[in-house]
């Protein structure tokens, strides 16, 4: 079994829960799950044991009722899990949502203890973080992080930074766990958290799930790099109508996305071609099916100038939810292998900004083979 706790029961988490139960019931093919039937741990072995949110309209509700808001065909097998209250720390600031958090009524230290105690009852193997994109500042040192928690610095810490701290404590006390950080907050890429995780038997996958236009841009950039075509500029647009795009209209939150998306250019090309790669706007009628477009100009042999233009409409949440079906199983495998801290072999394929910090983005086709080998599978094309 792989027991999963979800942090942030929004669109991605709800499509994950719904699709997972449909696959388990044999009602849906596992399309969009890269390692579908290949892993030794099967999809039917995944079990959601807990869910946390801070949206007052979700906390205390049955998981089934929350998932149904996103997918009217949510399976009834989701009934029986109550969405619990998480740590808020300004996550929903400036959004039209009424928030409630454990930190409203207790110190951060007490909230951490509260969560660790709940998790000791739920016994998760893997935590999946799909909270609203945060504005954050990474930590410079372990002392700074511990001081911020001890001094109850609610202005300094984000919810994700506290969740990982609590998960590390839980993993240390119970022998091991994995944390999937599918959002841009630097965790796998923050040396302070990497060290804390290694010491605490916590495997870290992160940061920011690689879906949508960015991995496609990465594939196209690798194509140019392999052929020594000189890229002059890259424009990439993303316009969507879900709550995540609404949250990203906030400048500080958008900065964190921009950071994880832009790191690919220099890492894949070897030089920093001028680029605009960031979520561009919110347009409600588009819903979860975002509009993406990219335009790249490059120089080819004999000074020829070429242009590539790609555009599409992509369902945002299912793209990440499908990857999560692999990531929770790989998380359990990392614990079994005792591969703690950021697991680069997994991150390089599944994450936009693969940690640890000293490692870079590599062409996904290579990352794919390395990830398969880490998981004990035959390489596909090597
Ligand atoms: P969403 O707004 O639908 O869901 C986020 C959920 O998290 C909401 O229910 C919100 O109430 C909850 N939340 C916010 N702060 C919380 C906290 N402190 N504790 C617990 N719950 C909290 O957004 P989404 O579309 O599901 O995206 C979730 C995250 O996944 C975003 O951070 C996004 O950057 C990341 N992500 C999404 C994709 C994708 O959709 N393809 C790709 C990469 C990364």
Quick structural gist:
By secondary structure, the chain is α/β, with parallel strands linked by helices. It has helices spanning 11-24, 63-70, 108-122, 142-150, 159-174, 191-200, 213-226, 243-247, 251-269, 316-337, 344-350, 364-374; strands at residues 2-7, 46-53, 84-85, 126-129, 177-181, 202-205, 230-240, 275-277, 281-282, 289-299, 305-315, 341-342.
Written description of the protein model:
The chain is α/β, with parallel strands linked by helices and 382 residues long. The two termini are 32 Å apart. The strands form two sheets. It has a seven-stranded parallel sheet with strand order 3-2-1-4-5-6-12. Helix 11 crosses helix 12 (364-374). The chain folds into two domains: 2-209 and 318-374, Rossmann fold, CATH 3.40.50.720; 213-315, Dihydrodipicolinate Reductase, domain 2 (2-Layer Sandwich), CATH 3.30.360. 50% of the residues are buried. It is built from twelve helices and twelve strands. The structure holds nicotinamide-adenine-dinucleotide. Residues 7-12, 52-55, 86-88, 91-92, 130-133, 159, 182-184, 208-209, 211-212, 242-244, 316-317, 319-320 line the site of nicotinamide-adenine-dinucleotide.
């Amino acid at each position: 079994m792989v027991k999963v706790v979800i942090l942030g029961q929004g669109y991605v988490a709800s499509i994950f829960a719904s699709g997972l139960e449909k696959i388990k019931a044999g009602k849906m093919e596992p399309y969009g799950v890269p390692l579908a039937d290949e892993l030794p741990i099967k999809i039917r072995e995944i079990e959601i044991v807990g869910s946390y949110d801070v949206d007052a309209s979700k906390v205390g509700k049955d998981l089934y009722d929350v998932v149904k808001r996103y997918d009217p065909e949510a399976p009834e097998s989701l009934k029986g899990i109550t969405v619990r209250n998480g740590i808020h720390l300004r996550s929903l600031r400036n959004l039209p949502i009424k928030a409630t958090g454990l930190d409203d009524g207790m110190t951060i230290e007490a909230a951490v203890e509260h969560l660790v105690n709940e998790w000791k009852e739920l016994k998760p193997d893997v935590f999946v973080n799909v909270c609203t994109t945060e504005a954050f500042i990474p930590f410079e040192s372990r002392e700074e992080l511990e001081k911020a928690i001890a001094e109850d610095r609610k202005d300094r810490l984000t919810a994700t930074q506290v969740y990982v701290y609590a998960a590390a404590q839980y993993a240390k006390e119970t022998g091991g766990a994995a944390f999937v950080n599918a959002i841009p907050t630097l965790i796998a890429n923050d040396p302070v958290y990497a060290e804390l995780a290694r010491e605490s038997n916590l495997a870290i996958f992160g940061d920011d799930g690689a879906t949508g236009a960015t991995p496609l841009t990465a594939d196209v950039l690798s194509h140019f790099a392999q052929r020594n075509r000189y890229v002059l500029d890259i424009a990439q647009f993303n316009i969507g109508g879900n709550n995540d795009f609404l949250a990203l209209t906030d400048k500080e939150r958008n900065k964190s996305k921009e950071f994880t998306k832009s790191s690919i250019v220099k890492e894949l090309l070897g030089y920093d071609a001028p680029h605009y790669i960031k979520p561009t706007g919110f347009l409600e009628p588009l819903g979860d099916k975002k509009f993406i477009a990219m335009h790249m100009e490059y120089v080819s042999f004999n000074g020829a100038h070429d242009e590539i233009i790609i555009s599409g409409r992509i369902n945002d949440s299912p793209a990440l939810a499908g990857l999560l079906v692999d990531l929770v199983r790989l998380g359990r495998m990392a614990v079994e292998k005792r591969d703690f801290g950021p697991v680069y072999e997994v991150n390089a394929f599944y994450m936009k900004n693969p940690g640890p910090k000293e490692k870079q983005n590599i062409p996904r086709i290579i990352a794919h083979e390395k990830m398969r080998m880490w998981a004990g599978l035959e390489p596909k094309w090597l």
